[in-house]
Amino acid sequence: MSTALQEVIDAARDLSPHDKLELLQAIVRDLQQIDTFTEASTAFWSPCPLDEIARTRSAPVVTDIRSLAVDFWPDDESVDDFNEFIAARRRADRLRET
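The structure corresponding to this sequence follows.
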């Protein structure tokens, strides 16, 4: 047992029963948060097969690719303008990384 833990135990002995109960509740809450974080972290890093994802989430089935089309492109901008914008951003990012 570490000296720090022994000091905490010794200090806890001097507490009232009500304060000891509050201390225990605080420790339990702390442990629950650690456990919840560990479970979430493990779940995040565990690979999940695509068929399992499709089974557990109700993803719509696309039967007509035209249903995915949207008409949001501004009339005053060309695809060339967009490509130039992307190229300029990439150049700026490369310069910033060096």
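Residues 3-45 form one domain.
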